[in-house]
Request: fold
Amino acid sequence: EPEVTQTPSHQVTQMGQEVILRCVPISNHLYFYWYRQILGQKVEFLVSFYNNEISEKSEIFDDQFSVERPDGSNFTLKIRSTKLEDSAMYFCASSRARGPYEQYFGPGTRLTVT
Amino acid sequence: SQELEQSPQSLIVQEGKNLTINCTSSKTLYGLYWYKQKYGEGLIFLMMLQKGGEEKSHEKITAKLDEKKQQSSLHITASQPSHAGIYLCGADIENNFNKFYFGSGTKLNVKP
Reply:
């Protein structure tokens, strides 16, 4: 069964460093999302991406964040200068198209900023 | 602000018992998703509801969306230890399927 994959599963970085989190969505999916979940808190929407551009972003998704689909398979989230409060689980999700379609989530990348 | 409220926050049931988890919004739920999450892991898609009054079932889990599309319930019949985990509701409340909100989750423990 097709699934969303994410790498790495765990990333430890120092404050101020840049990190890139990678996701491979399900191959025939066209709509992509990033979410984050701070330990013990809600899953929070970061950004949605369709047709090579951002569809919507939350207040959390400030200038430190960027997303890219560099090729036909990867979808990346970059944090330019990490802060302690960026420590969280980051989930990538994809859906077949825009609209009321199932969103499938990856297993997540646990980001720890020290 | 709490776009989606889930109740209860946690639940401990004896194996074999039925249980219900609720997800409530002050705004219309245009697409309502139920997920299960094991601690520290990803979200497993369970069901999606869109139409008022819609009901879907998979194995022993039934989800409903009320007619007004502001509340959904997830019902588990004859619970088993394998049902344990965190159940999350997520929804589009802006009718654009660009942005989704999640409830805070219901932690379910099933005692054998």
